[in-house]
Amino acid sequence: MHDSEKSHFNYQIILDSILVGLVAGCGAVGYRYLLGYASQASGWMYSHLDIYGILAVIAFLLLSAWITYKLLVWAPYSGGSGIPQVMGEFSGLMNMQAGKIVVSKYVGGLLSMLAGMSLGREGPSIQIGSALGKMTSSYLKRDLTKERILITAGAAAGLASAFNAPIAATLFVMEEVHKNIGTRILLPALLASLTSDFISKLVFGMDPSFHIRVQEAMPWQDYGYLIGLGLVTAVVGYCFSQLLLSLQTLNKRFIPNIWLRVTLGFLVAGLTGYFLFNLTGSGHDKVVELLNQPAGLQFLVLFLAGKLIYTCICYDSGVPGGIFLPVLVLGALSGMVYFQGLTSLGLDVDPFMRHFVIFGMAGILTAVVRSPITSILLVSEMTGSLSHILSIAIVAAVAYLATEVVELKPIYDSLYERMFDNVKAINLSPEKVTLQYVVPAFSDLVGMEIKDMALPEDALIIDLVRSEVSLIPRGRTRLAGLDQLTIMCNLASAGQVRDYFRRLGDDVGPAQSSREDLE
Questions:
Q1: Per-residue pLDDT tens for 2-59?
Q2: Do 147 and 198 lie in a common domain?
């Protein structure tokens, strides 16, 4: 690429990314705004029930289940959080229909929130943002490489709007969703996040998403408590991940009918809203209430267990909705349980309740998502303070190490692999996919000759870029750290290529992917 062409590409991507930030920001902010009203309406609905109201709510739940089921059939990739679907889009394994995704996420998300399901807005905001990025790329008639960059930018913009955390949103999308931190996508994702965050602050104000004020940092003499909190959040995170996946397996085995699964989910939400309303919704407001009016240890333990189980049930029903915010709520509740537990033992931890709430959120997010740096930055940005970053980092590190010992996989990777198993059989087509991978500096791939790579027979390395110089890949070419490989294969084999690189390269992930029909 000539310098003039490269400069034009850079300026074009910068402007496109800002535009995507505006579009995706408006879409995600609108989603967040409507879900806020839906949450309030849900509270009013369940607090004003008489005999006729109960019949009306049952009718509403059944109608909502039917609408949501029709949306899932109409837009198959719109269920759940949306993050595994975006990962599939980057891997070239799925091709989301952007317009349908946005409509289904909006309507399905509103209905699930009105019903009182314990789901969040963050995962759906990422998918809405990525879909709007894809739509913007299509409108601007950009090529497939630029489309992937704008999808990344849209995903980051969506999360930034949901949390008011543009830096963490950029890092999360690149580290966890895109599985690659490359300079070519870093700037577009950051620009879109900042633009989207600006729109969010115009609508919702300058306060952080989780506005918990803690004036003083925790003294280093009390850092021993942080190790215990890290272990507690690791246990809760492990239980959450295992229960979520186990219920999903049971649902698919015993309730394979999607309509029945969605209907049962809405009916369970109705029963929970009537008998245990505190468990409904994302739980953010309840955390704030408990901070102002602390509860006893027994109530908090029961509330934590109930919230964990109910969130898993809601998510595994398959309706549009995420687990990001409910997981943070579980972390906050874990911090409260830990605080009350230490207090019951006679330990003087009275000044640290809010500290434990904040640190607990970082710990459980690290345990579930397995991205400690993103978790540390996200919680710091969300709470509006960087003064506790060392304490947060200690809890996150302990939680990460503990879940590493038990070999707990990142939840979104597990959900993605299960979704890939479902779609693998339908990808038997002559369509080709082009994937790009960056070879980590420390991996078994470094020093390996291309001819020794155990790639599928239909996979071909068509380009190798080293230090910004394009080389012709030959059988005896040895791979070096940070080499960028472009691989073309049948769409049905893309998953095998992805698994091979992730197995040998550990943290290897697709930098970009594109499709082209070579029939």
A1: 454 445 457 888 999 999 999 999 999 999 999 999 999 999 999 888 788 899 999 9
A2: yes
Cα–Cα distance between 338 and 291 in angstroms, integer? Answer: 14
Element at 436 (helix H, strand E): strand 431-438
Residues 6+ apart with CB under 8 A from 345: none
**CA pair distance 391, 381, nearest whole angstrom:** 15
Q: Over the chain, what is the mean pLDDT?
A: 86
> What contacts 141, CB < 8 A, 6 or more positions away?
none
Q: Are 370 and 435 within one domain?
A: no
Which residues have a Cβ under 8 Å from the Cβ of 259 and sit 6 or more positions away?
Answer: 65, 66, 69
Q: Pseudo-torsion of CA 309, 315, 316, 320, nearest 10°?
A: 160
d(CA 198, CA 210): 17
Q: How many CB atoms are located within 10 Å of the residue 44 CB?
A: 8
Q: Across residues 404-408, what is the average pLDDT?
A: 93
Residue 3, amino acid: D
Collapsing DSSP to helix, strand or coil, 458 comes out as: coil
pTM, rounded to two decimals: 0.84
Residues 103, 320, 281, 31: is their CA dihedral positive or negative? negative
The residues, ordered by sequence, that sit 6+ positions from 250 with a Cβ below 8 Å of its Cβ are none
| Residue 49 contacts residue 274 (beta carbons within 8 Å) | yes
Is residue 374 in some structural domain?
yes
Taking the C-alpha atoms of residue 410 and residue 87, their distance in angstroms, rounded to an integer, is: 13
The domain tally of the chain equals: 3
- For residue 423, being part of any structural domain is answered with no
Distances (CA, A) of 492 to 155, 167, 187: 25, 35, 32
Q: What is the reported pLDDT for 485?
A: 86
Verify that 100 and 69 share a domain, yes or no: yes
CATH number at residue 476: 3.30.70.1450
In the predicted model, is pLDDT for residue 91 greater than 90?
A: no
Count the alpha carbons within 13 Å of 441 in the hemisphere toward its beta carbon: 1
Residue 263 lies inside a defined structural domain of this protein: no
HEC secondary structure over 193-247: HHHHHHHHHHHHCCCCCCCCCCCCCCCHHHCHHHHHHHHHHHHHHHHHHHHHHHH
For residue range 314-343, what is the model confidence (pLDDT) as tens digits? Answer: 999 999 999 999 999 999 999 999 999 999
Burial class from Cβ neighbours inside 10 Å (0-12, 13-18, 19+) for residue 184 reads middle
Asked if the model's pLDDT at residue 303 lies above 60, the reply is yes
Cβ atoms of residues 206 and 384 within 8 Å: no
> CB under 8 Å to 4, separation ≥6 — which residues?
none
Domain coverage including residue 450: 429-517
Give yes or no for residue 197 having a pLDDT over 90: yes
The average pLDDT across 193-212 equals: 86
Last residue of a domain, one of 388, 413, 438: 413
